Amino acid sequence: MVIRVPPGQRVTEKWPVLHYGSIPPFDPQRWDFRIFGEVEEPLRLSYEEFMALPKKVITCDIHCVTRWSRLGVTFEGVAARTVLGLVKIKPSAQYVMVHAEQGYETNLPLSYLLEDDALFAYRADGKDLTPEHGWPLRLVVPKLYFWKSAKWVRGLELMAHDRPGFWERNGYHIRGDPWQEERYSEP
């Protein structure tokens, strides 16, 4: 039997809306996606260029640090591996800071973005994401708590050394593995 719900979680059919700050406006003419840091040449994609990238569909379970899990969510978007394949990553790159609207950022090891199930999603369960859930683009990293799946993503900074993002600086665990219950940092 495959266990799909990590320790301390409860299953919900709903998709609760949780975020810090307001919902940012979206203007496709001004929106861009940047990849910079430990890469040979930084890259900037317009919304049109990003949306022209090959699409991928995944079905996964999502787990929130606030103890809810939603099973079997189908996301459509662009594989993180595809996006990273647009740049030449320096060998020194081991971590990524995901940059989103309004200065929000979250960190993770680069290896998580190279997994088959890491995706920059714009649709969930057959419908465009709502602004509350990250429209026009959110990261989906199913192996980590959902705060690592940042909403309103605008870019990736590849880094040689890890540094904490917004929630990590405010008491959340640096990695966030739901199977290890890595919810909060040690006191």
Summarize the model shown.
By secondary structure, the protein is mainly beta. The protein contains 4 helices and 11 strands.
Explain how this protein is built.
Strands 1, 4, 5, 8, 9 and 10 form a six-stranded mixed sheet that branches. This protein has a five-stranded mixed sheet with strand order 3-2-11-6-7. The protein contains four helices and eleven strands; from the N terminus they run βββαββαββαββββα. 10% of the residues lie in helices and 33% in strands. The protein is mostly beta strands and 187 residues long. The protein has a single domain, classed as Alpha-Beta Complex (Sulfite Oxidase, Chain A, domain 2), CATH 3.90.420.10. Strand 2 and strand 3 form a beta hairpin.
Characteristics of this structure?
187 residues; mainly beta; Sulfite Oxidase, Chain A, domain 2; six-stranded mixed sheet; five-stranded mixed sheet
Helix-strand category:
mainly beta
The gyration radius over C-alpha positions equals 16 Å
In which range does the helix fraction lie?
under 10%
- Under the CATH scheme, which architecture would be assigned? Alpha-Beta Complex
What value does the average pLDDT take? 95
Secondary structure layout:
Blueprint: E1 10-11, E2 32-37, E3 43-46, H1 47-51, E4 56-63, E5 68-79, H2 80-84, E6 95-100, E7 105-109, H3 110-113, E8 119-124, E9 127-128, E10 138-140, E11 153-159, H4 166-169
Parallel strand pairs: 1-5, 2-11
Antiparallel strand pairs: 2-3, 4-5, 5-8, 6-7, 6-11, 8-9, 8-10
